[in-house]
Amino acid sequence: MGSDTGACHTHAHEHEHFSTATAVLKAEHRVIEKALDALERLAKGGDRSSLGDWAKVIDFARNFADKCHHLKEEQLLFPAMEQHGIPREGGPIGMMLAEHEEGRGYVRAMAAALDTAAQDATGARATLQKYAAAYIRLLREHIQKEDEVLFEMADDVLDDAEQERLLRDFEEHELKEMGSDVHEKYLKIVQELA
């Protein structure tokens, strides 16, 4: 599994080989990018694309990218940064939160299109392709901004003790939100789609 281990992992102490909370989030970004590559291939597949594969990508987006990854940022990392005076409103955190919401909208639209596929598979695929393109573009740019700007800011202001606390909080978040073995499940989904 290589460098992917630790991304939304739920076994006790699985995050210990990461020294910072942002390193965990960056590792998760690499998994999300693989899913975006798979989504891009699906979108290019046109009428040949499998609706079952679309369902898998939407499941990944809802549960791994959003519930596991984005919620860690929103509920744990961002509040820790705000305590160090990095503003939410009008600052980079506010922009990231707005982009998370935008992404959720695209995923909801894809899920709604998938629900109509039984009545109109061609129309559903056209809608899926449209929202997939928007989601892919948004998330690729969003990940770059977080990796290159926001996480750098976080690493500048958070000391070792805070990073360690966040790593522990990430573990708890995953167990509470996702249950155990969720990381393997979603890595498997990404590998199947690849």
Write a brief structural summary.
The chain is mostly helical and 194 residues long. The protein has 6 helices and no strands. Helix 2 crosses helix 6.
How is the secondary structure organized here?
Blueprint: H1 21-44, H2 51-82, H3 92-115, H4 121-157, H5 160-178, H6 182-193
Helix pairs in contact: 1-2, 1-4, 2-3, 2-4, 2-5, 2-6, 3-4
Q: Which ranges are low-confidence, i.e. pLDDT below 50, for 5 or more consecutive residues?
A: 1-7, 9-13
What does the radius of gyration come to? 17 Å
- Measured by DSSP, the beta-strand proportion falls in under 5%
Number of helices, counting only DSSP H or I runs of 4 residues or more: 6
Q: Helix and strand string, N-terminal first? A: HHHHHH
Q: Could you estimate the helical fraction of the residues in percent?
A: over 70%
Count of strand segments: 0
Which class do the helix and strand fractions yield?
mainly alpha
Q: Distance N terminus to C terminus?
A: 14 Å
The overall pLDDT average reads 89
**Largest sheet, strands/sense/barrel:** none
Shape: elongated
Looking at this protein, list some descriptive labels.
194 residues; mainly alpha; 76% helix; disordered N terminus
Outline the structure in words:
The chain has 194 residues and is mostly helical. Helices cover 76% and strands 0% of the residues. It has six helices and no strands. The two termini are 14 Å apart. The N terminus is likely disordered.
